[in-house]
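4.2 Preliminary Data

To establish feasibility before requesting continued support, the project team ran the inverse folding procedure on a target of 149 residues. The structure was first converted into the token representation described in Section 3, and no sequence information of any kind was made available to the design step. The complete token record follows.
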């Protein structure tokens, strides 16, 4: 028998089966910086109605995916995303950048461009997946980045 729980992003009339949420995964391609992990996890759990977030971490991953100059790192990130999508049936992917990033010490505007380029690249790799970009500000608040143009 299914237990029904309220989905955090649905109207009060719509319900989400609790068992489905308990096994739902999403994926974060995120910086290794521990300050952003919990805010990103909480945001993605709500955004994708997922209980679990597969964390794929590297210092400055949006720069790595935007530039694609280190093919070994790019392949490593994509291999880990593939496991999340194929084995955990991830319902969405987020590329995350943040304030005060040691791995990508660019300005916020530059990082947002890197995130957008990374999202575009990830969408080409995972055409059937929803891919979003996130920015974590100096207060550790998470914001979804609007698509450009």
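Position-by-position output of the design step:
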């Amino acid at each position: 028998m299914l237990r029904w729980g309220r989905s955090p992003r649905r109207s009060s009339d719509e319900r989400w089966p609790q068992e489905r949420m308990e096994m739902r995964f999403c994926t974060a391609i995120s910086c290794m910086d521990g300050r952003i992990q919990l805010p990103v996890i909480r945001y993605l759990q709500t955004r994708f109605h997922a209980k679990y977030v597969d964390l794929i971490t590297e210092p400055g991953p949006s720069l790595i995916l935007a530039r694609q100059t280190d093919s070994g790192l790019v392949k490593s990130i994509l291999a880990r995303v593939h496991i999340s999508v194929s084995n955990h049936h991830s319902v969405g992917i987020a590329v995350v950048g943040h304030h005060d990033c040691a791995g990508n010490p660019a300005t916020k505007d530059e990082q947002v461009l890197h995130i957008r380029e990374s999202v575009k690249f990830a969408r080409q790799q995972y055409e059937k997946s929803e891919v979003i970009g996130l920015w974590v500000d100096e207060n550790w608040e998470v914001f979804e980045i609007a698509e450009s143009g």
